[in-house]
Design brief:
- This protein is α/β, with parallel strands linked by helices.
- The chain has one domain: Dihydrofolate Reductase, subunit A.
- It has an eight-stranded mixed β-sheet, with helices on both faces.
- This is Dihydrofolate reductase.
């Protein structure tokens, strides 16, 4: 099983300047809980925005640069190679960025999305279009904005039909 995990705004925004535009502490806690112990696959820019390998996860970085190396991480050059490098994990996660999500949508079995109920016009990275005819919603939790969360949001899991 291959899972895409992302926080996506109403206008499909993911971030700006290799960073999130919003801060939702509940999303970050959930992300950590779900991905702990798994292989996480991401593009080089996404990795560099994190600044380090994520603790208690196997980090796989996709980079076109054949000389790119990061201590403590697996570096590959294609999504297919990343999936192969994660073959021991029954549920590796795709963490982005936008181009990696686009490639992975064809291969993913699960979409685990945090839907941020707000549009961000200044974003420079976006989630690809989803053909919802290919997916079925299997779980949803809705939350209202509060003192820690500036926006309404939902945790939604989809399974490929």
């Amino acid at each position: 099983m291959l899972t895409i995990i992302a926080a996506v705004a109403k206008n499909k925004a993911l971030g700006k300047n290799n960073d999130l535009i919003w801060r939702l502490p509940a999303d970050l806690k959930r992300f950590k809980k779900i991905t702990l112990g798994h292989h996480v696959i991401m593009g080089r820019k996404t990795f560099e925005s994190l600044g380090r390998p994520l603790p208690n996860r196997t980090t796989i970085i996709i980079s076109r640069n054949v000389s790119y190396k990061v201590e403590g991480c697996i570096v590959v050059h294609t999504l297919e190679a990343a999936i192969l490098a994660a073959k021991e994990d029954k549920n590796p996660f795709i963490l982005g960025g936008g181009e990696i999500y686009k490639q992975a949508l064809l291969r993913a079995d699960i979409l685990d999305l945090t839907l941020v109920h707000h549009s961000f016009d200044d974003a420079d990275t976006f989630f690809p279009d989803i053909d919802y005819n290919q997916w079925i919603e299997i779980n949803r939790e809705d939350f209202n904005a509060d003192e820690q969360h500036a926006y309404d949001y939902s945790f939604v899991r989809y399974k490929k039909k």
